Amino acid sequence: MTYYEFVMLKPDAVRRGLVEEIARRLRAGGFTIERMACKQATAELIRAHYADNIVKYGPNFERQAAVCFDGQLVLPILLGSESPDIVAQVRALVGATNPANAAAGTIRGDLGIDSFEKSNAEDRMCENLIHASDSDAAVRAEAAIWFEPKTLEGLF
Length: 156
Prior knowledge:
Elements: E1 3-9, H1 11-15, H2 19-28, E2 32-36, E3 39-40, H3 43-49, H4 51-57, H5 59-69, E4 73-81, H6 86-94, H7 107-111, H8 116-121, E5 130-132, H9 136-146, H10 149-152
Antiparallel strand pairs: 1-4, 1-5, 2-4, 3-4
């Protein structure tokens, strides 16, 4: 049986030319790239993707997300594994959300150059390279936002 995790390479990963390096690290972690797309983020997609965070953190978060993402390229990726612990395993490989706190050997720890402290002082979203879903339910919901339904048929 294949289990899935949704990740998205954010605009800073694309801009910095880290797509191949991050994909290599994901594959080296034992995950297969089942689906991948290159999308131009829109305000509508970002509002749907970050709906819970917008409710939790308010209009300032929504504004920062729009500035960071709107019109920028992102790469939504659906990873596969035979491990039912794929979500936790991928999140461990990605590292702490704040790159300044991410351990060496993780994607954010090795490749991250931003921090919550710096981004907060500059009133912007932290550039932390990659998003990883935090639950099986989030995997399904986020994949449905970024991928065409026909490309997900038979997976979930």
